[in-house]
Amino acid sequence: MTRRLGALFALLATLAALVAAAPPAAAAAAEVEAITTTTPAMNPGQTAWVSVIWKADKNITSFRVTAAPPAGVTVSYPSDRAYTSLYGSSSLAKNTQDFTAIKVSVPYSASGSVTLPLTVTWKNGSSNRTATTNLTIPLVAYAGPDLSLVTTSLRVPQATPTWVQVRFRGAAPSLNDFRVTATAPEGIAIVYPGDGTSSGLNGASTLQGGTEDYTSFRVDATGVPPGTYTLQLTETFNRPNAATSTGTVDLVVQ
Fold this sequence. Notes:
The protein is mainly β.
């Protein structure tokens, strides 16, 4: 019995020493602190970069952050990496600050706010550290125009059918399945890529808010004399419900 008690006390002493040697989770987390806990508001349907400012109370290296987005929300990181790091480098000196950037896409169905869990890893000397925190993204419904027409006039030769580009700028968070049709005065023919019934965007099928893209179609003005004509444009898209926008462009036939 005496030998068994002695072995038990030795085991307990060893466990106590191991616990004392391991840094508490709170102590590890205290080495790095997220200054940003709430971002500026986003709109449902919007894709935008958000930034988080961090500070450290020790010199740390190999700083990385990953996010675990809730259902429907997607994230990506700079340079198509599987994580984001600090703007200046992957190191943060004691009592200094730097920020990380994460690209967030919020679905149109979201409301209220989005809670984005973040996992932070770094090294203190040769020791690996991990901490978790939450980033709150408030959501505010978008109110305003869907898009603006950047191109206001086009010039084409009267003698030769010519491809033209009409540029748009998105204003609403995202306009999906974006298509354009042009209606011309009698004598002017419009031909779409692939002999289709409409034209899509050059870069993608979605026009994101704050970005520009263009659509192309061919104008055959051989049937009209030189002069200035008006093209009626109709844009169709989903945001997320089907919607339509219209505009006009001056067509100068030379």
